[in-house]
């Protein structure tokens, strides 16, 4: 059942391509006025098989919406998702895609039905997708999944409220694994957990990736976590991708002014580094996506903004060594 | 004499399932001009310690025993009258969630002035001036205009600035900050932490910083207390805790954080699940999750012992040699 890494490595085609994805929400404020909230505005990227792409940004930047739109939980306003070389368009294609692409949610408290036992929660995707016969085959599969995520068989008949946050997240991961997916969108899967438990879950994500050849889109705001787990990192700001590149490189030498400010704001758990480090202060706050500024979305807070930045939107283009940056002044600023 | 002296504090919550000993023998002292960090995971008792100092525990919570002295004045059992004069005046608190800590139906100005009118003998005009001055201190632009606005017109970071302004309006001796930046984005968090550091230097008060984020503690704190299961397992300077941790839990906590040095390696998490306060083990509460646990750890809880100048830890492993 499990596809190994070699089987797909024959071609160089990415497992998942996102092309010009847009997600606009129409808001009705009263009778005649209608506003458009551009949550995700024209983003494109590829994810290779077996890779982890970290998606970072501050609240309201559209990272969760991007993850959900990729899985067609929202109908995209424009753009295309191409999975294994095939575009996902029709209802049938979406349904088939959803067995191969699943999701782990942020909040392990509200993402599990309090009235279902653990085995029902994990078994539900099996039933919905008709993946196993009822009875022993189903039970065996559920126990196998529970074992994978480090839960005992005796946990099967318990309810979500009997578990700690870390264990609940394990249940959520087992559910995401039930359909033998190739691709998982992990939406802030560890941010509700304590540090010591967070490390257990991060290690488990890495182990599962090794064992099952999984590909992750890892959405998080904690840059230390994203840096650790990701191969590449994509940075979002107000619905746009502003920088994309190798995880270590981007953390060591961010090129976009927003990424620079973001990296310098991370509180490093080391007093000597903390005393020595200098933060790049940003003026003002993130503009509302309802009134996104014209031109570069970041120009209202950018210390290097010029008239050009106020007028035209910079394209995401290669800056150095495969790094993509959306900034008019990459060369001058760095 | 220390500004704030907490000695052997025990706070419990009476629940249907039994007595939950949320704080279990906590002692520490806080000097003027110092920033003390209390770190720990959920359920470690760090917030309850703060609420005990303020005596704002929920109905079923109670300080069972111990002493809390502010400038030598005993607060445990002092009565509501005394506490009302202390809260907001000599000890202030800011909470985690700036969204729910402000009243949505009153203007920011009215809420700021309420605290000032209640605790000082300023008249309305002076209170207004003081409120504007405080907003300016916490870097809120156009404070006169902002005074007339309602909380919904403020962003999360701005609301937390208002909370800080409110807490500092009466020049408290101690400011307790309970996860003040947890709900905020990193760039906003960095601004708030810098603001707190600046104001602390300017006004010279003492801060108790309660957080689960070791990064935040490293930025701000002179001294650190590490809590686990309602008790203190280690205390020392920031350098002691980060560079010479002397309790197995502290060591585990530090190695659980994904830092730059850990790139490409597996993290070293602490095994097991957080402790159930209703079923506390007999010995060291951390023993069931501790890799270095010995027989003695399971049967007897370790006492706080000096491991260096101003550095103490409650761990049997230190006494092994």
Summarize this structure as a short list of keywords or feature phrases:
heterodimer, A: 334 residues, alpha/beta, Rossmann fold, four-stranded antiparallel β-sheet, 13 helices, disordered N terminus, B: alpha/beta, eight-stranded mixed β-sheet, 11 helices
Topology summary:
The complex is a heterodimer of chains A (334) and B (321).
Chain A lengths: L4 H5 L6 E13 L5 E14 L4 E5 L6 H8 L7 E6 L2 E2 L3 H10 E4 L13 H11 L7 H13 L16 H13 L5 E5 L7 H18 L2 E5 L3 H7 L2 E6 L2 E7 H6 L4 H9 L5 H6 L30 H5 L5 E2 L5 E2 L4 H4 L1
Parallel strand pairs in A: 3-8, 3-9, 6-7, 7-8
Antiparallel strand pairs in A: 1-2, 1-4, 4-5, 9-10, 10-12, 11-12
Chain B lengths: L3 E12 L2 E13 L4 E5 L6 H9 L6 E10 L2 E2 L5 H7 L4 E4 L13 H12 L4 H14 L5 H5 L8 H13 L5 E5 L7 H18 L2 E6 L2 H7 L2 E6 L2 E7 H6 L4 H9 L38 H5 L5 E4 L2 E3 L8
Parallel strand pairs in B: 3-8, 3-9, 6-7, 7-8
Antiparallel strand pairs in B: 1-2, 1-4, 4-5, 9-10, 10-12, 11-12
The biggest chain-chain interface is:
A-B, 43 and 44 residues
How much of the sequence lies in strands of chain A comes to 15-25%
Q: Would you tell me which CATH topology of chain B applies?
A: Rossmann fold
CATH-level-4 superfamily name of chain B? P-loop containing nucleotide triphosphate hydrolases
Structure described in brief:
Chain A has 334 residues and is of the alpha/beta class.
Describe the structure.
The complex is a heterodimer of chains A (334) and B (321). Chain A is an alpha/beta fold. Chain A has a single domain (5-325), classed as P-loop containing nucleotide triphosphate hydrolases (Rossmann fold), CATH 3.40.50. Chain A is 34% helix and 21% strand. Chain A has helices spanning 5-9, 63-70, 91-100, 118-128, 136-148, 165-177, 195-212, 223-229, 247-252, 257-265, 271-276, 307-311, 330-333; strands at residues 16-28, 34-47, 52-56, 78-83, 86-87, 101-104, 183-187, 215-219, 232-237, 240-246, 317-318, 324-325. In chain A, the strands form two sheets. In chain A, strands 6-7-8-3-9-10-12-11 form an eight-stranded mixed sheet, with helices on both faces. Chain A has a four-stranded antiparallel sheet with strand order 2-1-4-5. In chain A, strand 4 and strand 5 (86-87) form a beta hairpin. In chain A, helix 4 crosses helix 5 (136-148), helix 4 packs parallel to helix 6 and helix 5 packs across helix 6. Chain A is globular, with a radius of gyration of 21 Å. Mean pLDDT of chain A is 90; it is low at 1-10. Chain B has 321 residues and is of the alpha/beta class. Chain B contains eleven helices and twelve strands. In chain B, the strands form two sheets. Chain B has an eight-stranded mixed sheet with strand order 6-7-8-3-9-10-12-11, with helices on both faces. A four-stranded antiparallel sheet of chain B has the order 2-1-4-5. In chain B, helix 3 runs parallel beside helix 6. Chain B is globular. The model of chain B has no long low-confidence stretch (mean pLDDT 91). The chains are: A alpha/beta (334), B alpha/beta (321). At the A-B interface, helix 6, helix 7, helix 8, helix 10 and helix 11 of A face helix 7, helix 8, helix 9 and helix 10 of B.
């Amino acid at each position: 059942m499990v596809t190994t890494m070699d089987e797909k490595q024959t071609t160089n085609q990415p497992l998942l391509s996102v092309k010009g994805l847009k997600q606009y929400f129409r808001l009705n404020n009263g009778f005649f006025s209608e506003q458009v909230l551009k949550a995700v505005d024209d983003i494109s990227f590829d994810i290779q098989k077996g890779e982890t792409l970290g998606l970072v940004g501050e609240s309201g930047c559209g990272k969760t919406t991007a993850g959900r739109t990729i899985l067609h939980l929202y109908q995209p306003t424009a753009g295309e998702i191409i999975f294994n070389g095939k575009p996902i368009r029709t209802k049938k294609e979406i349904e088939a895609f959803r067995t191969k692409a699943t999701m782990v949610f942020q909040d392990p408290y509200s993402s599990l039905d309090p009235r279902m036992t653990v085995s029902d929660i994990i078994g539900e995707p099996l039933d919905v997708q008709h993946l196993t016969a009822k009875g022993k085959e189903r039970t065996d599969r559920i126990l196998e999944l529970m074992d994978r995520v480090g839960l005992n068989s005796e946990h099967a008949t318990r309810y979500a409220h009997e578990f700690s946050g870390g264990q609940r997240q394990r249940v959520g991961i087992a559910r995401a694994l039930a359909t033998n997916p190739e691709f998982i969108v992990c939406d802030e899967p560890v941010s509700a957990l304590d540090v010591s438990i967070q490390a257990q879950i991060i290690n488990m994500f890495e182990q599962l990736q090794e064992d099952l050849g999984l590909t992750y889109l890892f959405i998080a705001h904690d840059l230390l976590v994203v840096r650790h787990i990701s191969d590449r990192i994509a940075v979002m700001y107000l619905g746009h991708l502003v920088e994309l590149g190798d995880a270590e490189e981007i953390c060591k030498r961010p090129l976009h002014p927003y990424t620079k400010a973001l990296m310098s704001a991370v509180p490093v758990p080391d007093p000597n580094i903390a005393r020595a480090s200098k933060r790049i202060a940003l003026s003002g706050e993130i503009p509302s996506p309802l009134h996104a500024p014209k031109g570069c979305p970041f120009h209202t807070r950018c210390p290097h903004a010029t008239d050009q930045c106020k007028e035209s939107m910079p394209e995401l283009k290669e800056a150095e060594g495969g790094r993509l940056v959306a900034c008019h002044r990459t060369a001058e600023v760095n | 004499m220390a500004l704030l002296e907490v000695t052997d504090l025990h706070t419990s919550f009476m629940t249907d399932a039994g007595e939950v000993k949320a704080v279990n023998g906590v002692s520490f002292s806080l000097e003027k001009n110092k920033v003390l960090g209390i770190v720990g995971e959920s359920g470690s008792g760090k917030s309850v310690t703060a609420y005990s100092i303020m005596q704002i525990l929920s109905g079923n919570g109670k300080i069972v025993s111990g002493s809390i002295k502010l400038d030598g004045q005993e607060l445990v059992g002092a009565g509501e009258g005394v506490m009302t004069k202390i809260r907001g005046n000599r000890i202030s608190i800011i909470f985690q969630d700036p969204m729910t800590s402000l009243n949505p139906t009153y203007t920011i100005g009215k809420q700021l002035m309420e605290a000032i009118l209640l605790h000082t003998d300023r008249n309305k005009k002076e209170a207004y001036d003081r409120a504007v001055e405080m907003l300016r201190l916490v870097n809120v632009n156009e404070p006169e205009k902002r005074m007339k606005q309602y909380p919904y017109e403020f962003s999360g970071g701005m609301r937390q600035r208002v909370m800080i302004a409110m807490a500092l309006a009466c020049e408290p001796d101690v400011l307790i900050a309970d996860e003040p930046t947890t709900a905020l984005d990193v760039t906003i968090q960095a601004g708030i932490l810098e603001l707190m550091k600046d104001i602390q230097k300017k006004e010279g008060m003492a801060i108790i910083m309660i957080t689960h984020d070791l990064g935040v503690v490293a930025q701000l704190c002179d001294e650190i207390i590490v809590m686990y299961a309602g008790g203190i397992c280690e205390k020392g300077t920031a350098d002691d805790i980060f560079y010479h941790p002397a309790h197995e839990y502290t060591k585990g906590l530090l190695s659980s954080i994904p830092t730059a040095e850990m790139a490409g390696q597996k993290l070293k998490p602490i095994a097991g699940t957080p402790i159930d306060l209703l079923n506390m083990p007999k010995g060291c509460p951390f023993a069931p999750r501790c890799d270095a646990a010995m027989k003695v750890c399971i049967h007897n809880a370790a006492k706080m012992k000096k491991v260096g100048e101003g550095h103490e830890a409650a761990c049997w492993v230190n006494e092994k040699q």
